[in-house]
Amino acid sequence: MTGRTGSRSATYDGAWHAIVDFLRTAGVDVMTGLPSDDLALLDALDSDSPRLVVCRDQRNAAFMATGYALQAGSPGVCVVGKGPAATNVMTGVLEAKFSGAPLLVIGTGTATDRRSGTAFQELDQMSVLDPVVAWSERVDSAARLVPALEQAWRRAQGPPSGPVYLELPEQLLTEQITRGRPWQTDIEPVGGVRFDDRSPVVEAVRRARRPILLVGGGTRHRNADGVVERFAAGLGAAVFSTASGRGCFDEDDERFLGLSGLYLRPAAAQLWRDADLVVTLGSRLEETATFGWPDVADMPPVVQVNVDVAGFSAEWDGHRVLGDVGDVLREWIPVLEGAERDEAWQERIAEARRRLRSDAVVPADGEPAPGTVRVARLLSAVDSVVPRDRILVQENGLQDMWSYIYPYYACAAEGGSIVPSEQTSLGFGAAGSGGVFLAAQGKPVVAFVGDGAFAMVRGDLATFAKERLGVLFVVICNGGYGWLQSQLGGHRRAGERFSFIAPGAADAPGDVARNFAEERDVHQVAVTDEAALDAALTKAYERTAAGTVSVVHVAVDLSDAPPGISDIEGDFTAPDPA
To answer: d(Cα 298, Cα 275) in Å, to the nearest integer?
Structure first.
């Protein structure tokens, strides 16, 4: 190759050499994936190239890159081969789409002169991935690589941000690539919004006396200066978040009352029925976020703020504001000065928070099932042992959902939370935690996952160990897929010929935990007694500080379901007791 990063022009020995130089110029420090058989990518890497984390499973690689993107706020990069590699990576791309994560997937494809339907691993990968990406291009010409790569980078970042796919036919891997100008990697943002003094949405916000503020995942990386907390205080709002919005608002704030929808607790539910305005920030108002809301006819106006028109829900009455969440709130805060507030509403917010906290007290002398640990006690131990700036990466199985219910778990301002999207792809949290660790800038990363999800990432534990991704895995061991097993119980079908947990696991969950605790180069321990929990977590966390992957397998009883979740069925309806 002639020319380097920052040069006005360059000639490259193949597509991967050009791509590595572009990524270096764009400031990319890591990429994940499983290279194609030709290994041309490896030839393009040198000492100052982005770090390549080689995974054993393309799905895990995409999960990892998505976790990186969500934590970093900049694109994750995932590189894969062709054919089955494209189908394997698809689940991770799906998760990135519904999480709004900027993800650049670069894959190889069949050479243009060999496309016949009979070439090795030939597949119409564009048709496979097009439904789950925001943009895609197959680069059939060497002259198209530079502009296509720059376009992919821009489209991944949006708005709206999301996954994109760039395909490299095999002939480009060795074909000379010429760049005749500097790389274009930066996008100049258009900042600020303005509202007329007579704006109806401004007037609606100003008049609200019993407001609710719902913080969604689109607020991520837009609240570094605490503008959301300041707006909530000026508005006098009760504050809730969606699952993906956790970590965007300080949960120690006196106005925070937990998650909306599926995870809403009774102590705060009446506020939703009595509110006179709901303001939502960066949420598509998916089903889990709106589950249990009043009927449309009884719902107060909903003001939706989103950076993308496709993010607006058409289900609810109210104004829609197109703009960056932070910019909009900075414009609104001065408008709220001197606005009257309902003091009774403020007292109700305070009382709801007191009730939430008292309802979630875990009795120190409570009795778990023999050989198990209560999940609420486990979350309390994580809170005590791991510093408050930790980032909790979660799954969405039956007992994982304890961590979604405030205040059994609370996310501090200095910490963070990464959860699966509405797709709840199994294994995302387990594998994605590696990418979160890569972007966490030294903060502790805890993956709170079930044993079913952990089994899906277990093949890549060697990757975590080799790359010294010091994640603390807290694995809830109930013997398999607790959510599906609980559905069998809800329909009174448990004990039939089908089961979603390991044989005997319901009677001896401790044995299941101990069976997992065997892996080279990974610190693992099984906990079947609450008395041993704190010491086991402390030792495991200390090992992560040295870059060692640590796994604490905790035996739990399947009946220890989160409050309010046991009555929920697959599509969020209560099972028919008959």
So the answer is: 10
Cβ atoms 78, 435 nearer than 8 A = no
Amino acid sitting at position 193: V
Cis before 159? omega within 30: yes
Ranges of each domain in the chain: 10-179, 200-358, 362-555
Q: Write the CB contacts of 472 (distance below 8 Å, at least 6 apart in sequence).
A: 386, 444, 445, 446, 447, 537, 540, 541, 544, 550, 552
Half-sphere exposure of 249 (CA within 13 A, CB side): 34
Alpha helices in 180-240 (DSSP H): 200-207, 227-235
Q: Model confidence over 304-349: pLDDT tens digits?
A: 999 999 999 999 999 999 999 999 999 999 988 888 889 999 999 9
User: How far is residue 439's CA from residue 433's CA, in Å, rounded to a whole number?
Assistant: 10
Residues in the chain: 578
Whether 10-179 and 200-358 share one fold: the answer is yes
Q: What is the pTM of this model?
A: 0.92
In our burial notation (b when 16+ CB lie closer than 10 A, e otherwise), range 82-111 reads bbebbebbbbbbbbbbbbbbbbbbbbbbbe
- In order of 291, 377, 493, the CA distances from 487 in angstroms are 19, 24, 8
Q: DSSP code of 574?
A: P
Written as one string, the DSSP assignment of 507-559 is T-HHHHHHHH---TTSEEEEE--GGGHHHHHHHHHHHHTTT--EEEEEE--TT
Host H or E run for residue 186: none
In CATH, the architecture of 200-358 is 3-Layer(aba) Sandwich (3.40)
> Cα–Cα distance between 72 and 347 in angstroms, integer?
38
d(CA 97, CA 518): 35
From the CA atom positions of the chain, what is the Rg in Å? 25
Token output for 185: 């990697």
Q: Which residue in 554, 545, 555, 544 sits closest to 522, CA to CA?
A: 544
Read off the amino acid at residue 285.
L
Task: Name the nearest CA neighbour of 445 among 480, 463, 470.
Answer: 470
362-555, CATH topology level: Rossmann fold (3.40.50)
Q: CA-to-CA distance for 487 and 518, rounded, in angstroms?
A: 31
**pLDDT digits over 185-206, tens only?**
987 776 678 888 789 999 999 9
Long-range contacts of 329-332 (CB under 8 A, 24+ apart): 329/227, 329/228, 329/230, 329/231, 329/281, 330/227, 331/192, 331/193, 331/194, 331/195, 332/195, 332/202, 332/205, 332/231
> Tokens standing for 565?
């979740």
Beta strands in 374-471 (DSSP E): 391-394, 416-418, 445-450
- Cα 349 from chain centre: 28
Omega before 407 within 30 of 0, i.e. cis: yes
The pair of three-digit structure tokens given for residue 337, joined into one six-digit string:
């000065």
Q: Residues of the chain whose pLDDT is less than 50?
A: 3, 506-507, 575-578
Per-residue model confidence (pLDDT) at position 194: 83
Q: How many whole angstroms separate alpha carbon 237 and alpha carbon 269?
A: 14
**CATH classification code of 10-179:** 3.40.50.970
